[in-house]
Amino acid sequence: MTAAARNRFRKWWIAGVLALVLIVALSLWRLVGTPAIGFVEYRMLDPKDTPTALAIAPDGTVWFTIDFASAIGRIRGGKVERLPKAQMSVEPIGIAVAADGSVWFTDTESRQVSRMTPEGAINSIPLETPVVRLGKIAVARDGAVWIAEASAYSITRIKDGKLERHVIESVRGGPLGVAAAPDGSVWVTLQSANQLLRVAPGGKMDAFDIPTRSSSPGDIAVDRDGVVWFIEFRGNRIGRFTDGRIDEIPLGAESVGLTGLATAPDGSVWFGMLRKGSLGRLREGTIKEFKLPREGARPYSIAVDAQGNVWYTDISGIVGMLPAETAIK
Fold first, then answer.
1. Same structural domain for residues 7 and 126?
2. pLDDT score at 23
3. 23 and 65, same domain (yes or no)
4. Which of 225, 252, 227 lies closest to 240, judged by CA?
5. In this structure, how many other beta carbons lie within 10 angstroms of the beta carbon of residue 275?
6. Which end of the chain, N or C, is more open, meaning fewer C-beta atoms within 10 Å of its C-beta?
7. Distance CA 143, CA 164 (A)
């Protein structure tokens, strides 16, 4: 073979390899969704820690609960911190931040709801029932704290240290998700009853049936326009309530394991897909998937900060963030 022929062969061989690599890359992209570009991850200080719920303070501090640990986690200034508390947490799925930067969290093992200041001081409010099972928690604009108190069949309001229980009439009405709306109302998911519940500012409660039977509604959020969004874990759908009507957006035949829900400043809705190791974004009726950067990732809770950065807990031991510049694309 002449030198010229060898050069031509080499060029054709290189071109063929590059084409094959491109084809494989495109195929993988279609399978896994958007590549994991730009994610920032924070590993737990204790490798046994499992981060669960998270919430973001007005100053950008990220607070999170830690399962089976006597501590609350915090990320501030790019640093992971572990703030001690008296009792070990078991299924600590409720956390919310007040306007003053303090954090409220459910403390089921201690049968109480607790408040931690940014300095780490803790005050607790006992629930005074022999059995306590708690869901999510939210802080309303008036500073009232609302908790899904499933063991008391109540959506419970805490204000000025006093408990006010709004008992749900249905025996299948144990609450799970809680969200405070701009108009002063509070929205709740009733998982077993397959309903949404609205608590008006005056305390009146109205329930709304979800069209898909046994959909298992979980996390719930209200956007700045007052539209109510919620996940249907078994229904594999994102629900939307507005103008007295519930619409459902299906996510396909494959059950993705919906976990966590949050609305962003640009109006998009974010959620976790536990079984796919991905974050999902719903915007203008279109769903886009963002694959997390590690194999075995298991996103659980979602929050979006004021800049549009999307934060999540990964129960394999990570708190992560998808920067706004990537999230909006």
1. no
2. 33
3. no
4. 227
5. 13
6. N
7. 14
| C-alpha dist (Å) from residue 303 to 77, 173, 321 | 17, 26, 9
CATH number at residue 218: 2.130.10.10
Cross-strand bridge partners of residue 42: 319
- For residue 312, the enclosing domain spans 40-327
pLDDT score for 38: 84
Same domain, 248 and 135: yes
* Cα–Cα dist 113/127, whole Å: 7
Q: Which positions of the chain have pLDDT values less than 50?
A: 1, 3-35
What is the length of the chain?
329
Task: Indicate if 1 and 69 belong to the same structural domain.
Answer: no
Angle at 243 between CA 305 and CA 273, to 5 degrees: 40
pLDDT tens sequence across 86-113: 889 999 999 999 999 999 999 998 999 9
